[in-house]
Amino acid sequence: MSTIFPKWTNALPTLLAGGGVTGLAIVVGTIWYTFTPKFWDVGYMPKQPGGGFNHQIHAGKLGLDCRYCHTNVEVSPEANIPSVATCYGCHADGRLTKLATSEDHKAKTAFVREAYASDEPIEWRRIHKLPDYVRNFPHHSHVAAGVSCISCHGNIARQPEVWQHEPLSMGWCLECHRNPDPHLQPKDKVTRLFDIEDRQQQLGLAGLASAGAKFYEERKIHAPENCGACHY
Amino acid sequence: MSAINPDQTTAQRLAGMVPSPKPQRMEDPVTRDGSLVEDPAVRAPLVLGDRTFNDVTETVCGYIEKGPGRWWMPAFGLASGVAGLMPLMILYLITTGVGVWGLNNHVDWAWDITNFVFWIGIGHAGTLISAILCLLKQKWRTSINRAAEAMTIFAVICAGTFPGIHVGRIWMTWMLFPIPNANAIWPNFSSPLLWDVFAVSTYATVSALFWYMGMIPDFATLRDRAAIRLMRDGQDAETLPILNIRVDMIRARIYGILSMGWRFSARHWHTYEKAYLMLAGISTPLVLSVHSIVSFDFATSIVPGWHTTIFPPYFVAGAIFGGFAMVLMLLIPSRELFPGMKDLVTLRHLENMAKIILVTGFMVGFAYAMEFFVAWYGANKYEQDVFVYNRLIPPFFAVTGEDGQLKYAPYWWAYWAMISCNVISPQLFWFKWARQSPVAIFIVAFAVTIGMWFERFVIIVTSLHRAFLPSEWGMFFATPVDILTFVGSCGTFLTLYLLFVRFLPQFAMSEIKNVMPQANPHWEGYGHGHGHASHNPPASGAAPAGAHHAPDAPKEGL
Which residues of B fall within a CB distance of 8 Å from A175? Predict the structure, then answer.
């Protein structure tokens, strides 16, 4: 009735319906895209003491094996952060004679010797965090199954400063547990990240999956999907 | 506003703005109500008082436009005060934890789920009246369907709260619904608890649509009446105290939006009727499915006392039973409080509902008996124990067990409250005077409502409080929080219903007009002998003028 509503209000239902649908799409889309660890956590790269441990140089250029520092990764749920003594093993005064003998480098690594001298740990910042209701992500069983470091951490040997490469969300965990084959590698190559990269390029996803299927049988792997596997 | 445009003419005609003589109540000298005619050749009238179409409009719209009376404000204040308990208790629950309820390790469902099933069951009468009675062409539904549908919506609102708050970690309530999430997990699709979510949300949606769609023509009537009063621009027009806005302006705007541009055109009515029939068709299976699925929450478990195939029909019958009791408990006071409502909701309507209560009461009584029979016939020791030693035997009939100890059912009082309210009290309706006495009906309906609450309590708590191992035996004791949450939900229900009677049309005006004698093309006016029994008590016999219309006679009414 024109006496109650002015004529332009005829457009309102259409506008409201259109606006409602658009608004709903925006809300759903925003939540879908942003309310995820993939959006918020991937790329987390906190500032480390002393400018950080350069994995690109140590693990990449120099070819140190991951297990040289993360010694417990094959026997313990926790892939330990090395003690200062491990760093000091190389970076003691005058130990390095061939590489990195410049004054500049000495200045950069001074914090290691200081920490060693004062018997204080270096306060490395943790990057890969799981909620406390996910008990002890078992590194040892994953390494034993032949899951390479690269599957969860990316190619660390290419990262001057380490950042979180994967979302570490429950959905991401389950993605692999529901289809683990492409992530299973030859056991001798688990920590050899460049070899793994090459292998991934050569075989492609289908090749990795078929090779992994064999490993799955041989190693009698059972990737659990029940709640109690992680939440106990 | 100089010329009246066609819309206004139409509106004026249909809204019946032309005043008509005040209707008289026509009472049968014997039964005091013309709707209780016993002559099988004469259909009882569904609207009393020789009303015209305009009288119906004036009566129904008057409840909103003139207000329900002085009683409304105190009643609303009291009801909303009680309703306020509910958010307070829920806040306390959320901030403290489910330990504030009397739940324990074995009785992990108690008042919360009892209240849920109680309220969701109450809604079923509304759906039955609006859907099944519509498809079965039961004309008497027209006077009660709107109120019953409103009651359905409000009951579902109360019901839906309880599963939401009983989950403990309230911030995870969204997990009730299968929403895609970063955890890549879903609710258990093979669990009836998830089917329940679908069943109840479908039910709520369809009931709300049905209710709202039915009100659109009535909203349009209210809009047009307000608009016409605005055009008249009277000096004594009702205005809001401070804002100085005419109430009719607000009415016209709000009912105008709600009526979605309804203009009473033939095309609108055509679409409306089709949509109404379709929604009735969609709602019909819901009457059966919703409470069947609620019963699966129990029946698919292996708990003795729950694991029973009889549950779905038993729950559905119980829901209709309890729902009609609630409809009666709302309509009987309304009849007294709203002038002229006794002509629309006649004693015949009440009697029909009392008969339904009697029938469904027998159905639940049969189900109670069958539970015992099946426990005996199935030779299941645990099931027998649940029924006999958890529910049936009162302490004064305690039996000596194998170990020489006296055995009786700790929840005998709940069981016998249920039996006496649900099975015994409706037997009163065998007597005609009880079916025709609003007071008696109200008392029985009240008892039935209590009994239906106890039925759910008995099913849930007595089955859980003694598990298979005697070490798991223990009692459930309700805390004040349990009790006040339930009382608060009753207040919420009543508050919503009071708002409904204040601001929304309580009757489907067009449908009532359809069952009035005027809707019959052969009708020649009141006093022409048929179609209106109150003029023709059996003693006065056949009026000569009506004789040649005899074949048409049973057009109206039941």
Answer: 184
